[in-house]
UniProtKB/TrEMBL annotation:
Residues 2-231 form the ABC transporter domain. PROSITE patterns: ABC_TRANSPORTER_2. This is Urea ABC transporter ATP-binding subunit UrtE. Keywords: Amino-acid transport, ATP-binding, Nucleotide-binding, Transport. The gene is urtE. The lineage of its organism: Bacteria, Bacillati, Bacillota, Bacilli, Bacillales. It comes from Paenibacillus alba.
Amino acid sequence: MLNLQKIEAGYGESMVIRNVNLQVKPGQIVCLMGRNGVGKSTLMKSIMGVIKPRSGSISYHDRDISSFPPDRRAKSGIGYVPQGREIFPQLSVEENLLLGLEAAAGGRKKLPDSLFDTFPVLRQMLHRKGGDLSGGQQQQLAIARALASGPKLLLLDEPMEGIQPSIVMEIEAIIESIKRNREIAVLLVEQSLEFATSIADYYYVLDRGTIAAEGEAEHLSEEQVRKHLTV
Ligand SMILES: Nc1ncnc2c1ncn2[C@@H]1O[C@H](COP(=O)(O)OP(=O)(O)O)[C@@H](O)[C@H]1O
Ligand SMILES: [Mg+2]
C-alpha cells in the first residue's frame, strides 16, 4: 500500500534520513520507533510531502506520489496527524472537523456519524473553540479531523505525547478500534514499547536516520530495545 524506497531527506545542508525502505500493507498497524531526534517526524513529513525528499521514491497503491503536494496526497487517501497536534485554536471543533473534510476524495460533504461514535466528547463540544479544549481533547480532535475525510492510511506522529494517562487510554482504544476494523492502515510513531508491541503488526526502529531494525512486532527483542531505544 505504502512503499518507500531509498528515501533521503533533510533540511538545508543537513541530511537527516538516509536510505530508508519502509512498507505498510492494507489494514496493518506499523510502528516507527526510535530515540528523540533520529528523524521519525522528518520521515513522516516526507511521506506527507510537507518536506521534499532529496532522492528515493514514495509510492501509494502502486502509484508514485513523490511529486504530489500534501493536499493531493491527502486526497489520495492519506491522513496525517503531525506531532504536537496543530489544530486551529480559534476555530470551533466543528469548523476544525469540516476542514478535515476538504481533503475527502470524491467530495464528501457531511461529517460521518461514525466519527462521533468514536469521539463522543467532540459531539458535546462542537461549538467550543479548539483552543479551549484540554490537551487530550485537542489530540482527539486532531485525529478525528484526519479521519473525517475517510483515509485508508493514517500517519500518527506521537499521539500520546504530553497527554494525561486517562486520555492516553482513550487514544489507545481508538487505535485499537481502527485495528479491529482493518479498514485503515496506520503508521504510528510511538515511544511506549509496551503499547507498540501490544498493537503493532510490524515495527521499524530508526537510528540516526536509517532503519536499524525491523520485524514482526511480537519479535521485538530486549536486545534491540537496549541497543536502539534506551537512552
Ligand atoms: N525544520 C527543521 N529544520 C532544521 N532541522 C530540523 C528541522 N526539524 C527537525 N530538524 C532536525 O532533524 C533531526 C531529526 O528531527 P525529527 O525528525 O524531528 O526527529 P524525531 O521525530 O525522531 O525526534 C534533528 O536533528 C532535528 O534537530
Ligand atoms: Mg518527532
